[in-house]
Design a protein that fits this description.
With about 80 residues, the protein is of the alpha+beta class. It has helices at about 15-30, 50-65, and strands at about 1-10, 40-45, 75-80. The chain contains 2 helices and 3 strands, in the order E-H-E-H-E. It has a 3-stranded antiparallel sheet with strand order 2-1-3. The radius of gyration is 16 Å and the shape is elongated. The protein starts with a strand and ends with a strand.
Length: about 80
């Protein structure tokens, strides 16, 4: 069994309205040094298989088909055996 941690980020060319709103809010509260805020997704789940290669393949398919929009987002992941 493996614990998977996935970080999904918008591609740099894609606008991030949630990040922009957070940055504007920070400015309104007096945080003048906060710049380039981006809001990403952090996702954790378990994969119940024995081999890391099988876990990686299933994880990649899950990310490509369900967790991300490949046209707008990219991802990175970490697998830990438990």
């Amino acid at each position: 069994m493996f614990k998977a941690t996935v970080i999904v980020k918008r591609k740099p060319a894609i606008l991030d309205p949630q990040g922009k709103a957070a940055q504007q809010g920070a400015k309104l509260l007096g945080f003048e040094n906060i710049k380039q805020t981006r809001i990403d997704k952090f996702i954790c789940f378990e994969i119940h298989v024995d081999e890391i290669s099988q876990a990686e393949e299933e994880l990649k398919q899950y990310c490509d088909k369900i967790l991300t929009n490949p046209n707008m987002e990219e991802y990175e992941f970490k697998l830990e055996k438990f």
